Automatic annotation (TrEMBL), chain A:
<keyword id="KW-0349">Heme</keyword>
<dbReference type="GO" id="GO:0046872">
    <property type="term" value="F:metal ion binding"/>
</dbReference>
<dbReference type="GO" id="GO:0020037">
    <property type="term" value="F:heme binding"/>
</dbReference>
<comment type="similarity">
    <text>Belongs to the CcmE/CycJ family.</text>
</comment>
<keyword id="KW-0472">Membrane</keyword>
<keyword id="KW-0735">Signal-anchor</keyword>
<dbReference type="GO" id="GO:0017004">
    <property type="term" value="P:cytochrome complex assembly"/>
</dbReference>
<dbReference type="InterPro" id="IPR036127">
    <property type="entry name" value="CcmE-like_sf"/>
</dbReference>
<keyword id="KW-0408">Iron</keyword>
Automatic annotation (TrEMBL), chain B:
<protein>
    <submittedName>
        <fullName>Heme lyase CcmF/NrfE family subunit</fullName>
    </submittedName>
</protein>
<keyword id="KW-1003">Cell membrane</keyword>
<feature type="transmembrane region" description="Helical">
    <location>
        <begin position="606"/>
        <end position="628"/>
    </location>
</feature>
<comment type="similarity">
    <text>Belongs to the CcmF/CycK/Ccl1/NrfE/CcsA family.</text>
</comment>
<feature type="transmembrane region" description="Helical">
    <location>
        <begin position="313"/>
        <end position="330"/>
    </location>
</feature>
<feature type="transmembrane region" description="Helical">
    <location>
        <begin position="476"/>
        <end position="497"/>
    </location>
</feature>
<keyword id="KW-1133">Transmembrane helix</keyword>
<dbReference type="GO" id="GO:0020037">
    <property type="term" value="F:heme binding"/>
</dbReference>
<dbReference type="GO" id="GO:0017004">
    <property type="term" value="P:cytochrome complex assembly"/>
</dbReference>
Length: 157, 655
């Protein structure tokens, strides 16, 4: 009954062998995760940061700031919106094709998920706006630029 | 009056948890017989009082007693009754009360029914359960009192977040809590077994229904939560790797590993220390989940209020319980003797692969979930999403599926490859043929391609254990395994098919326009306002044609709730056996056209059917195990009775 699988291992070492296999797999998973996190995590940028040092066009990132008043424009196709996100220091044009969240309005905070295009326009796949009075994108909390913070707080009133 | 009654009942229940702790831990020592007798009654009365306290809160919500702060903040008199009741646990305080109530009821159930383990182990288990409960009572009573009164009752309540005003919400959190609490019971058994050095197959058999039960509820909770996010958020996705979803997934992964290793321990007396360790990990993951969701460290629709005091309290409990259990494990693991040995090519060997792979996936999900919190400490903000989770988890998930298809064919203890060569060749052929066929016919990504191939392999592999066995005489627990494994294949097929073949159309349409989406033709017939009990909405009327034949209509809405003022997108779903049409209505453009988002999602519903099959497999397994235990107990009693009768007869004959 006891098959050939046993032949190479001294039985008294079985526990140790199992432990080593488990540890190797878990440490391997941990290293793999650490490596993948460094390359795949999507970094959060403020407009001034993304203008100063733009990420590679294939790198997924998040851009957070305030939707500039009077900047939202709907394109010909009726489903693409172009607007400008600013933090008081820099302004970044953003293009988004899709249904915008209900609370996406001028003068309020937004987090855009997407990529920085080579032409300086941020192409967003997804927009996160304030959900309800208890929810707002986490990245907008305690941002370093005081002005953004003040504006965000103003929209929360 | 009712609020005060509820609060008093809660304090008394907390005191009884303290008594249970003392009676359990002192009772298990030499000469502690007198206090030991108090442990079971304490657990029973605690369950009763805690249940009454929870009923009191339900009553306050049902009658909308606005003098209670929690009701005023979360309810509204104009809300439908079912959502008033569901509102009881649709907030932080109420959900914690629900948690502790489920925990108390579970403790009462063990105290009343469980008599198989040595009494000392039971006392240690009840003591550990009291210790856990006491922490949660302290948390509720000191930081989250649900019965707090307002000095001046408001005229009307705040209402419940409309995203939560949904029938799914009524059942989703209780489900997950039963799951979390079930793992806490398993944890208490582990502590009891470690303290009294009784890591035995009997301990595994006692713990198994609790692990299985917790796992079934977590499975249902995750399945329902995924469907809720799918149709309520209006984004068309069914899994976002959101930290809150991960908070439920991690305990599920640990529980899945635990229920497999507990089976090895029960059947073969192997993997003793590993099972004990997994018991600790599984409960730790429920605590981590609670911490992530309840501390306000994450912001989402699940995080009710940001309160650092609560976060640090839960973190303290987490450190205390997990740290304590790990110290206990470290000091006692050496005394847990090595169990029975097995060859690598055996059922046990396959289950070890399952356990290691699940643990690795658990680690990957945990790291990905915590990474943004870690980097934030260094003032770097990142988010981690599908580009990380999908490929990295798949590296362990896909090989595990291969073992899932083959493992159940292996015998316990040791097997030879020659015996299973033919089924293995058949399974491999199915996977390769599916892979090649799909690869030649469709241009899809690698992960969904592998998913489809492995789904076919697992589907066939899961029913192979039925081969050559009498279906009517097959134990129910084996049916459970077959159905749960088949559910994995069904869910995987749904995920891969939807990912690979979904077709999305995003358009701005005028009334009268016809939009094509895959096999569907969708006509925008009209857009008009409608009103509900506590909302108004804009509703689109879509006329549908499937492959040229009329296929009914769909009415997606953009809804505005007025208390609290919130807008939601109510998507329209048209379900066929082979998939779902998903329609969401957006905003009106300046020129009068309406934004419409349409998805044709082939076989997407199979994801949730698969989840339900997995849960059904778990239920059958519980029924099989518990009825087996009962039969064994009845048989043992009959033998004992007969022996007693024979002795009486013999004594009578002798007289």
């Amino acid at each position: 009954m006891t098959g050939q699988g046993n032949s190479g291992i001294k039985p008294k070492h079985q526990r140790l062998v199992l432990l080593v296999i488990a540890l190797v797999a878990l440490v391997g998973a941990g290293l793999l995760a650490a490596w993948a996190l460094r390359s795949q995590a999507s970094y959060f940028y403020l407009p001034s940061e993304i203008v100063a040092e733009a990420p590679a066009p294939d790198q997924g990132v998040r851009l957070g700031g305030m939707v500039e008043a009077g900047s939202i424009q709907t394109a010909e196709d009726g489903i693409t919106v172009n607007f400008i996100v600013g933090d008081g220091e820099a302004r970044v044009p953003v293009s988004f094709t899709g249904i915008v969240p209900a609370l996406f309005v001028e003068g309020s905070g937004v987090v855009a998920e997407g990529r920085m295009g080579a032409d300086g326009t941020f192409v967003a796949d997804n927009l996160l706006a304030k959900h309800d009075e208890n929810y707002m994108p986490r990245e907008l909390e305690g941002m370093s630029t005081e002005e953004v913070r003040a504006q965000v707080e103003a929209t929360l009133e | 009056m009712i609020a005060e009654f509820g609060l008093v009942a809660l304090w008394l229940a907390a005191a009884l948890a303290g008594l249970q702790l003392v009676a359990g831990f002192f009772g298990m020592r030499e000469g502690g017989e007198q206090v030991a007798a108090l442990a079971r009654p304490a657990a029973l009365v605690q369950a009763l009082l805690c249940g009454l306290s929870f009923l009191a809160l339900i009553y306050l919500f049902a009658t909308t007693d606005l003098s209670v702060k929690l009701v005023a903040a979360n309810s509204h008199s104009a809300k439908p009754m079912i959502f008033k009741l569901a509102g009881t646990w649709g907030n932080h305080e109420g959900s914690m009360l629900l948690w502790i109530t489920v925990m108390a009821l579970a403790g009462g159930l063990i105290a009343a029914l469980e008599r198989r383990l040595p009494e000392r182990t039971m006392l240690a288990t009840l003591g550990a359960q009291g210790f856990l409960a006491l922490g949660f009572y302290a948390f509720i009573l000191f930081t989250s009192n649900p019965f707090e009164r307002l000095p001046l009752p408001p005229v009307e309540g705040n209402g419940l977040n409309p995203l939560l005003q949904d029938i799914g919400q009524a059942f989703h959190p209780p489900n997950l809590y039963v799951g979390y609490v079930g793992l806490s019971v398993a944890f208490s058994f582990v502590v009891g077994a470690l303290l009294t050095r009784q890591v035995t197959p009997e301990f595994a058999r006692v713990m198994r229904p609790w692990v299985l039960g917790a796992w079934v509820f977590l499975t249902i909770g995750i399945t329902a939560g995924s469907y809720w996010a799918y149709y309520e958020l209006g984004w068309g996705g069914w899994w976002f790797w959101d930290p809150v979803e991960n908070a439920a997934l991690m305990p599920w992964l640990a529980a899945t590993a635990l229920l497999h290793s507990v089976s090895v321990l029960a059947a073969r007396d192997a993997l003793r220390a590993w099972t004990v360790m997994l018991g600790v990990v599984a409960f730790s993951m429920s605590m981590v989940g609670t911490f992530l969701v309840r501390s306000g460290i994450l912001t989402s629709v699940h995080a009710f209020a940001v309160d650092p005091e609560r976060g640090s309290f839960i973190l303290m409990l987490l450190a205390l319980y997990i740290g304590g259990a790990l110290v206990l494990f470290a000091t006692r693991a050496g005394t847990v003797a090595e169990g029975e040995r097995f060859s690598i090519l055996s059922r046990e060997g396959a289950l070890v692969v399952n356990n290691v792979a699940l643990s690795a996936i658990l680690g990957i999900v945990l790291l990905g979930t915590l990474y943004p919190l870690l980097t934030e400490a260094f003032d770097v903000r990142v988010s981690v999403g599908p580009p990380y989770f999908n490929p990295v988890a798949a590296i362990f998930f896909l090989p595990m599926l291969v073992v899932l298809a083959i493992g159940p064919l292996l015998r316990w203890r040791g097997d030879s490859f020659a015996r299973i060569r033919i089924p293995v060749i058949i399974l491999a052929a199915i996977a390769v043929v599916t892979l090649l066929a799909v690869w030649l016919l469709a241009d899809i990504d690698l992960l969904p391609l592998l998913g489809l191939a492995l789904a076919a392999m697992v589907a066939v592999g899961s029913v192979l254990p039925l081969r050559g066995r009498s279906l009517r005489r097959l134990p129910i627990a084996v049916w459970g395994m077959v159905i749960a494994h088949l559910g994995v294949a069904v869910a995987l097929f749904g995920m891969a098919a939807d990912t690979a073949f979904q077709q999305e159309r995003l358009v701005a349409a005028s009334v009268g326009d016809v939009i094509e989406d895959g096999p569907w033709q969708v006509e925008l017939r009209s857009v008009k306002p409608v009103a509900g009990p506590n909302w108004t909405a804009i509703e689109a009327d879509l006329g549908l044609t499937y492959k040229g034949a009329p296929a009914g209509e769909a009415k997606p809405q953009a809804r505005s709730f007025w208390s609290p003022p919130t807008e939601t997108s109510e998507v329209a779903l048209v379900t066929r056996w082979n998939g779902q049409l998903y329609a969401a209505l957006g905003n009106q453009a300046e020129d009068g056209r309406w934004q419409l988002r349409l998805w044709w999602k082939p076989f997407v519903t199979w994801i949730w059917y698969g989840g339900l099959l997995i849960a059904l497999g778990g239920v059958l397994s519980i029924i099989g195990r518990v009825s087996g235990d009962l039969r064994r107990r009845v048989a043992a009693r009959k033998i004992a009775d007969r022996k007693a009768d024979e002795e009486a007869l013999a004594a009578g004959a002798g007289a």
